[in-house]
Amino acid sequence: MGLSNRLATKVRTSAKTIPVNIPQPWEEIGELAAASVIRAAACTLAQTKLTSSGFRGNDFLGINTSRSSGNSVWWIEQGDDTSWTVSLGQATVAGRAYDWQLHCSFAASAAGHTLEFTTPAVATKDGTQLNKGAYGELRSLITTGLSDPLRISGEAETEVSQQGTSLRRIDASSRRAADHPSTLQFSTVATAAELTALAGRVPFLLARRDDAVSWVWALGWSGNLASQHARLTLVEPLPLSSPVPVALELTCELALTGHVNTDVIASQRAAALGDVILTLLRQLDPQATVTQTPGGAR
Amino acid sequence: MTTTFPAAEHSSLSPVLIRLNGLDNVVAAATTAWNAASGSVPTTSLQIGVRQGRQTVNVQHTRQMMTAAGSGTRELVARLCDRRPGETPSDGWPRFRWQVTAHVVPPGGYQELLEGYSSAVRLDVRDFRVSNGRVDSAAELALFRHLFARGLQVLASSSDTLGGQAGWDDDWWRGADEATVTA
After folding, report:
1. How far apart are CA A147 and CA A19, in angstroms?
2. Contacts with B88 (C-beta within 8 Å, 6 or more apart), sequence order
3. Which of A26, A43, A195, A226 could tie A156 with a disulfide, CB 3.0–4.6 Å?
4. Which regions of chain A does DSSP assign to beta strands (E)?
5. Is the alpha carbon torsion for A274, A279, A284, A287 positive or negative?
6. ipTM above 0.85, yes or no
């Protein structure tokens, strides 16, 4: 029994190279088409309920296997521009315990592209591959999908990715700028033209420029972030053509919504704006500094 | 000629092609937008079981975005990493939930798709993990993609996106219950 199981596992997981119909050029579309097929296949199977055990070793009565059993985890990883590894197993404190790994490697040949399946890891029980059904189905789905990769449905990957967007509640202590309103004061050496150019390189939505010395950015493009703003103001006279020491103030009065997650994102976003401005100022003047009030120097 | 871009429109796993006009230094703009988006994703804390000797103990980890310069054609790399107390960023770098890369499309690339645009940046999700039928830390991934794409777009004189998810919905983060987090 064990021998025939082992033989079946060996046959099932043996390396195989097949010709595939991949659109070209590879780096523009072929790679993306191959990736979409692999994602679709893995996400389709990841929606089914599978269990894996984190225990490896001799387990005569199956007690350890049973105790460390839980819902399976899928890892989808792109190694380089032509290969992917899909793994199934259990995440344990000692690392990943694989039921199996399927490696997909694409290569160009005179007749087109080929795909080589290999199995870098496989775990068995009495010679039988763990979760062998999912392994066989994955190979089959990838092979079928690659017959017409541009018609692959993105439904499974969309569903799996959207299922995961419901974030757990963020610990309010994660908020970077705990005090509101928060103010950052920057000191730098710059000209008016340099400051204007700098404001144009801030990757936030510029809501308005009130005058020559004041820029207002929205913290986002939609939802709560779109209605929250931060203002950068020049608090000392505008320098003209030659660089002089100037002080800038970034103020952000967040309107808290009461939703912890939403408020934390807003405060994180405000803090990120300060970081961006400091980075850009230091490209202009490496000696530029920032002070946070209330709080300490950063 | 490439006339299609294989991506599922609402999937945060699908690639995004950000088409741009009016940027002198696309790499610098992309790097600034990349770092701003990374810095905007909230850092969270969670307990993860860690082996200490023969015992498993729960250790407080910090789940945070980390970025690095890429290699080869992948100019930018970002990961959502779990760092243990006292660890340096490089210690925590290999312990990640997902990895995203971006690169500037080389001249002549996507000729038909880029008609009317002077440059483009492609974002790819290279590694991710699925458990219980859902992508791990997908909310952080969706937020990062959105802020990077839109952040880069505001630096251009005109732009648009093609491919997977680049939009945002507050409800993706609002009202979620406390979840049990495992390693």
Report:
1. 9
2. none
3. A43
4. 16-20, 51-53, 69-71, 73-80, 83-92, 95-109, 112-122, 124-125, 128-129, 182-190, 205-211, 214-218, 229-234, 244-252, 289-293
5. positive
6. yes
**Hey, are the CB atoms on B44 and A74 less than 8 Å from each other?**
no
> A-chain residues within 8 Å CB-CB of B152?
203
d(CA A90, CA B49): 14
Q: What is the DSSP letter of B114?
A: T
Q: Which chain B residues have a beta carbon less than 8 Å from that of A36?
A: 6-8, 14
Q: What is the DSSP letter of A297?
A: B
Q: Under a CB-based contact definition with an 8 Å cutoff, are residues A98 and A75 in contact?
A: no
Instruction: Give A159's contacts (C-beta < 8 A, 6+ positions apart).
Output: A43, A47
Search chain A and give the residue with CA nearest B139.
A165
Query: How far away is chain A from the Cα of B120, in angstroms, using its nearest Cα?
Result: 12
B147-172 pLDDT, tens per residue? 999 999 999 999 999 999 999 887 77
Q: Which secondary structure element, helix H or strand E, spans residue B106, and what is its range?
A: none
* Global confidence as pTM: 0.92
Please count the CA atoms within 13 angstroms of the CA of A195 that sit on its side-chain side: 32
Contact A177, A270 (CB under 8 A): yes
Between strands B55-69 and A112-122, the pairing is unpaired
Q: Which two tokens stand for residue A186?
A: 């920057």
CA distance B142 to B169: 9
- Residues in B closer than 8 angstroms to A272, CB to CB, are 36-37, 39-40
Tens place of pLDDT for every residue, chain A, 298 residues?
A: 578 888 999 999 999 999 998 999 999 999 999 999 999 999 999 999 999 987 776 666 666 676 678 899 999 999 999 999 999 999 988 889 999 999 999 999 888 899 999 999 999 888 889 999 999 999 999 999 999 888 888 899 999 998 877 656 665 555 554 444 578 999 999 888 899 999 999 999 999 998 878 999 999 998 889 999 999 998 876 666 777 888 999 999 888 887 777 888 888 999 999 999 999 999 999 999 998 754 333 3
CA pair distance B55, A108, nearest whole angstrom: 49
State residue A132 phi and psi, 5-degree precision: -65, -30
Q: How far apart are CA A74 and CA A113, in angstroms?
A: 27
Task: Report the residue of B128, B137, B144 to disrupt the A interface, i.e. the one with the largest count of A CBs within 10 Å.
Answer: B128
How many residue contacts between A and B have a Cβ separation below 8 Å? Answer: 221
Closest-CA residue of A relative to B180 is A168
Question: Rounded CA gap, A188 and A250, in Å?
Answer: 14
